[in-house]
Amino acid sequence: MKQSEYNLTRGAVHTLLVRFALPLFFSNLLQACYNIADMVIVGRFVGSAGVAAVSNASTLCFIVTSIGIGIAVGGTVLAAKFRGAGNTRAERDIVGTLFTVMVLAALPVSLCSYTLSRHLFLQLAVPPEALDEACNYIKIQSFGTIFVFGYNAIGALLRGFGDSQRPLIFISIATGINIILDLLLVGIMKMGTAGAAQATVTAQGSALLIALAFLKKQGFFAGYRLQNFLPNPRQTVEILKVGIPSMLQLVVINIAFLLVGGMFNQYGVTAAAAAGIGLKISTLAGMPCWAVGQAVTAMAAQNLGAGKVARTAATIRNGILLSLAATGSAVLMIQLFAEPLIGYFDSDPEVIRSGVLYLRIFSSWSGVAYAVMYTCDAFATGTGAPSLALFNAMLEALLLRLPLCWFFGTHLEMGFSGICWGMALSTLPPAVIGAAYYKRGKWRNRADNY
Q: Which domain holds residue 137?
């Protein structure tokens, strides 16, 4: 076993979770820096219209990325299952199968994002002064879709095999490239949002090439031939059985954020910029529980694959506690430093005022409920119930968030703050449902057939 890989079926559960989740957290944080760097630098050199453009375009980018990440989750679960069961031949087959599936998925997704973006932005009432910039941004980003999908395939496999360290190395290099190019293309060459998009696509391509080169040097692909990348039909079905619900879960969540962004757009470019910045900061607060959730998915799948039911249960218990502690700390820091955080992105006083209001309402106690919901959904995915995670996502995003945002924002005429309250309240019921899935314990019956 390689030094960077952990056997997640042995050792203290809480220690392994922390060790495995920490690199995932920093990887997620650095990946978010792609877009945050775009927003900060565009905000400094282009202004609020540029921030609104990047904010709206980035939400669509997240939907595209979510498709790749969701499908890749199927690869993580399957790789972890084979690693837990000690099936080395199946481990080898899953590599080629996942790569082929991801490439085939990337092509139509890239085409759709390129051709449909303007129509979508018009429907979402993107402010006129930001519309062309948003369209240019997403069209350039669409050329990087295959890089994003390829990189996520690598990350998914490594996580499934118990390695969360090497993806951190790859993304660290790519983030540095992105920031340097942002400063060069946007700050010095004055290329605006198009320059920021080009910087991000270049960094994404770099992440994939660096990952492939490093893994090849380490012998990860030793003995592979072209025929090894012909998809295994059975594994393809298993990947998609987990990957499609996971993909839909992430897509539904991001579509809801996109539609909520359309509600904020109705209040003008200042409100759109404030909401976009607030969402980026709230995303940072959610990253600790995302990392824990990814670790829980891999660890639960490995242990259930090994038939270790008690250890699987300990994984979710420790995961919830770790998520609550990490997310609670992040929320506290955001509440203490809300104003300077918003001001770092945009110095407009009205943007700062509205952005702080967003954080006071949305990035507060609802973050704690979100941590429970996300960790339990990740556990459900790792234990063979991705449909539960999808149901929770649809409940939170479509059946609660959108109606509540409309009810408070439009029906009660609370405006900007009403939309924020609708977002905050939507996380509570799904958190209860996720916790109930663990407590009822039906997932234990899957150990024999996993």
A: 13-449
